[in-house]
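call fold(seq) -> tokens
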Amino acid sequence: METLSTGIINKLSGLLFFLKRSKNEFEMVADEMENYSLKTALNGLSEESNYYEGELKNYLNHLGIITPYIQYDRLVDNNTYDGAEQHNNNGNELNCICSYNEMSLTEAYSDLLNEPLPFESLKEIILYQLNALKFTFMKIKTLNTARFAVY
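ret:
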């Protein structure tokens, strides 16, 4: 039976961290949102992130792999978004939050897809989640832009 290397397990742990972080962030942002459609989409993204984290954990547990605790502070780079500077433009703060989380998640998923994964079903799960998250981020960005459009 093939197993996952330590590098792959660490990358999976990092992905789980980013999924958990984006869930929490989008929950908080949705609570402050007045636009119903955007609030619903943000809550949906939060739930998706939570679901995807659970799906990956369950799959790894099924394989007998327990993701180790790693120091997540080192995963967060110094290029974090600074929403305080972005208040002047309509919707720019939400765009910054979305872009930062999308970049973090896309990079984490892409790093895993570039690895030689011994389980084809794991690769399919990762690819499906990546594509679904990209679509959801695109929907949120479109809704955010539309709320400030002049009709």
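The chain is about 70% helix and 0% strand.
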